[in-house]
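Anyone up for a design puzzle?
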């Protein structure tokens, strides 16, 4: 391969060629670089995938996106999808066919399932996003919600989680109720701050445009002109889930995220509201269901291997 734009080659190869080493290790090829030329040796299919990954990395850099180990890993995974023609390298001019623009960054899909999820976030009124940690379920939903809040297509952003702990007890934590539940809502705050400047988040929260609250605070409300996200939905009961879903109002979108295999409901409660809702509602017009797998984990590659190991033992 030969690259015309040499100013990005340092970022393309990575410090001490770490990006090239990552591709070599994952695809079983040998890569040597000299100047702006790269030689790839190995099995034909693997060489073809390596070429696509390098082209995708180069295109990302030319369009102003960073290339880190996670981005390289996601491109490697996507290079194995025969239906992703044009997704990796982008359309003419370097613009991917689907993306989410927020104030702080432009987000592009990192796996085949993320592409379908991002399409569903635009298309469907209610979306169930199921799968293990690290697949981008909540993060992409928050990013899409922020984008719609900024462009004015919704007036409010409401983020909610059930205040169910993974083995802890709220009563033993210090502070008032807000101080007790805030740590459990922290992932939602983190996603928000990654998509918007902190001062805007604080201002919009103070004005009520952005609300973060436990699911119990949703009872009795009608959520109109809002983008509503329920995180950790596997920890709702069927009654809580029904209550939440029936809050849906005019000109709204609702995203329900959760991992059916990580239920932390208290002892004696066996039925998860998430599984119950998907069983009852999947296939209804306007309701989309996206299922992520360990192959879609976009955190450090070891997270995917950890999830696979635990799921294997549970099976």
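Challenge accepted. My sequence:
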């Amino acid at each position: 391969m030969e690259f015309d734009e040499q100013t990005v080659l340092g970022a393309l190869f990575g410090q001490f060629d770490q990006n090239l080493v990552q591709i070599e290790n994952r695809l079983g090829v040998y890569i040597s670089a000299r100047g702006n030329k790269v030689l790839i040796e190995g099995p034909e299919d693997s060489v073809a995938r390596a070429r696509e990954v390098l082209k995708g990395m180069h295109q990302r850099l030319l369009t102003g996106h960073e290339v880190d180990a996670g981005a390289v890993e996601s491109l490697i995974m996507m290079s194995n999808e025969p239906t992703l023609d044009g997704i990796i390298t982008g359309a003419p001019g370097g613009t991917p066919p689907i993306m989410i623009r927020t104030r702080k960054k432009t987000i592009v899909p990192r796996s085949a399932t993320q592409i379908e999820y991002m399409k569903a976030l635009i298309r469907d009124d209610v979306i169930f996003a199921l799968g293990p940690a690290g697949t981008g379920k909540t993060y992409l939903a928050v990013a899409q919600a922020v984008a719609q809040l900024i462009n004015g297509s919704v007036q409010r952003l409401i983020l909610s989680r059930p205040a169910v702990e993974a083995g802890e007890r709220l009563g033993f934590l210090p502070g008032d109720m807000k101080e007790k539940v805030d740590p459990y809502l922290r992932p939602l705050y983190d996603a928000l701050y990654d998509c918007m400047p902190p001062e805007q988040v604080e201002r919009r929260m103070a004005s009520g445009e952005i609300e973060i609250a436990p699911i119990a605070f949703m009872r009795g409300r009608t959520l109109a002109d809002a983008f509503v996200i329920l995180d950790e939905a596997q920890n709702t009961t069927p009654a809580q889930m029904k209550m939440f879903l029936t809050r849906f109002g005019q000109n709204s979108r609702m995203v329900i995220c959760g991992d059916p295999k990580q239920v932390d409901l208290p002892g004696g409660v066996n039925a998860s509201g998430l599984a119950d809702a998907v069983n009852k509602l999947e296939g209804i017009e306007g309701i989309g269901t996206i299922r992520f797998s360990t192959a879609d984990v976009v955190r450090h590659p070891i997270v995917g291997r950890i999830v696979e190991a635990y799921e294997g033992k549970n099976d």
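A detail worth pointing out: The longest strand covers residues 156-161.
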